[in-house]
Amino acid sequence: MKKYIILTPEGETFAPNREFEVENLQVLGIVEHAVNEDDAIVQLLKENSWIIDAEFNVAEFIVHELL
Q: Which of 16, 28, 39, 56 could serve as a FRET partner for 6 with CA atoms 20 to 30 Å apart?
């Protein structure tokens, strides 16, 4: 089994002073005990229904295996 981090370029992030919009990736979650990237996404969505409710696009997800 593998461990994955799932990121998205969607959404907005602001600097602490709120005057600057920062372009970066947001971490949606870390999934342990996944067979592959697809399994990691399925597990993430099952455990975090807010991701779908917030209307994040699964096609935009960036998945990286953690060593």
A: 16
Distance CA 30, CA 28 (A): 7
Rg (CA), the chain: 13
Q: For residues 6 and 52, what is the distance between their CA atoms, to the nearest angstrom?
A: 14
Provide the number of structural domains found in the chain. Answer: 1
Q: Indicate the pTM of the whole model.
A: 0.87
The pLDDT tens digits along the chain (67 residues) read 999 999 999 988 778 888 887 888 999 999 999 999 999 999 999 999 999 999 999 999 999 999 9
Q: How many CB atoms lie within 10 A of CB 24?
A: 8
Token pair, residue 44, equals 């993430």
The answer to whether 28 touches 61, Cβ cutoff 8 Å, is yes
